[in-house]
Amino acid sequence: MSKSEISRRKFLGGTGSLALALPLASLPAAAQIGSVPQNFSGQRSHPALIPYRELPVRQRGETVIMVDPPTDGVSDCAPAIQAAIDSLPEDGGTVLVRYHQTQSGDRDCVYMIDTGARVWTGPKKPHYGIMLRSNMLLDFEPGVQLQITPNNFAVSYAVWVNQSHDVEIANMNLIGERFAHTMSGSGTDEWGFGLFVHGCNGITLRSSYIANFEGDGISMAYAGNPPTLPTDIVVWDTVCTGNRRQAVSIVAGNGIYLFDSEFSNTHGTAPADGIDIEVEWIEAPISNITIDNCIIRNNQANAVELNSSGGMSITNVNITNSVLAGNYSGVYAGVRGKGSVLDTATIYGNAIYQNRAAGIYLRGAPTHFTIGGSQSCDPHNNSFANNLVTGSHKYIYPISAQQQAQGYNAGSDMSFSDTALAPGANNVVGWNFFYSPNASITGAQQHPCNMQEPASRQGS
To answer: Residue 115's Cα: distance from chain center in Å?
Structure first.
């Protein structure tokens, strides 16, 4: 592919599990509403939408190296992949891991990765499987799966991008060893990561699947002192599921984008969130995070946790057009400790339902949060239902101080501390949709912006 072709690459689509009619507020109204016959008597529903993204271009050379790892289903395949990466010329290129059957009579292609093959000599002395370099694409033919060999390491990274730039990973199926792991005896072993992005700039992960790791599916952190932050990081069309500590951890960064992906079924060791955004060091803050058109569900703790403490700083977080369901809470935003900052967030266009606690928690003194839209049928409005298994409670627009909170009822869909409602906090709850959990399936409450019930429900 020529550089001119690469510079104009565009991507359409999403995984089948994401084919939902999510309220993509960024699309014009004409793109969201299908044509309806004049005599149509049913509900005027929106068609399912295919999210459109133009992903950033990562720079690399045109060299392509094919890798044919061992096919016995037992041997460590990391050395063959690493040798190809190390053989790329100075301007980089592409490493393509090819599909081969790995067991007789079985069409599966499972390449084993032994994370004990290498040990980094730096802090924590982590074991790792594959280390990527700048200016490269690591690509996999359809059907290729990387399976981590069982181990007893306290710290290990299956795929490590360490202080690099312009790196792309595509079509990676990466399966951890949490169910075969032997505890090291030196702690919780919660640092066994699938993909570790460490002090990098310009990284894209797309069309991938990461599951069953002892720690995080994906972890993003600073490197060095003074710190180099992960910057311009894009995760697109990716499923992170069944991991033990987090689907995604962000402990430092500026400009991180999670698009059209699923983060689910995290359980095993705290925090156990879908996405945990929590600063690790005061000199390495977090800013400019966007989570859009994602499914974040069935996590042991929160779908998204924003946690600022000990003087740390988190600013400008956007959670939009996503499904947050079946978690402990949908969004938890907390501030603890003198000098801690959690400032500027937008939460709109989301479906937040059947979480075991409140849909949204604001604790301590987060500032400049905007939740919902500016009018009754604004596509920025969030939809709430069945959180805390109690009746939903409506809010007036706007709520920026406690004295304006007529109709506010803490503890179900939204739960705010008094400091979060203080005038100086400048938090605004706009219009949102609320559904009663007491309605039966056949008589479920209609959407307030629909003209009438569907024909199948009329007369029920």
So the answer is: 25
